[in-house]
Amino acid sequence: MNTAKIGTSILATAAVLFALTAPFALGETAPSQTMYARASTPVRSMRTLGAPMLGTLKQGEAVKVTGKEEDYYRVIYDQHVGWVYYNKLTDQKPEDVSVALGGGLPSGGIQLTEQEAGGALRGLSPMAENYAREAQVPAWAVKAVDAMQARSISVQQLDQFQKEGGLGEYRGGTQR
Predict the structure, then answer these.
(1) For a disulfide at 28, which of 23, 59, 92, 149, Cβ 3.0-4.6 Å?
(2) The 72-77 sheet, strands edge to edge
(3) Tens of pLDDT along the chain (176 residues)?
(4) Are 36 and 102 in a shared domain?
């Protein structure tokens, strides 16, 4: 084999290897990778916000990912090809909250004194309350933290906030 043929063969091999591996180097998922829903999230029939929904993944629900295009993962959902916005899935299975909070402990869960429970309900743990006292954090700042920690929003409110602000899958002001 002459030098020109060897060079051409090496270039052809390199081109094939690049074509096969480039999608993964550019952030694509491996074929048939299992991922999990970070929270309740829609599975759409196309890669746009306005596309009809095939269904909804529950938080922690596993889904088979077969690829990624732009900001969406291509998934197999209920034997159909669907699309999920990329930051709605994770490759780590979320912890079972009841186990994380002690539901699986032999003692029946986390044991708190009445004082600790009261502090936790107010927002600051006893350790944080002690620090705030020792650091002479103003009372208005402690109340502001308590108020902030007591506030909660629904998934629908978060979705509306993202839509109005052009954030997450709504960024850029256009439907993807």
Answers:
(1) 23
(2) 53-57, 41-44, 80-85, 72-77, 62-69, 33-37, 89-90
(3) 555 555 455 655 555 445 444 444 444 445 679 999 988 899 999 998 888 999 999 999 999 999 999 999 999 999 999 999 999 999 988 775 444 444 444 444 444 444 444 444 445 677 777 888 888 888 888 888 777 777 777 777 877 888 888 887 777 655 44
(4) yes
CATH code, domain carrying 40: 2.30.30.40
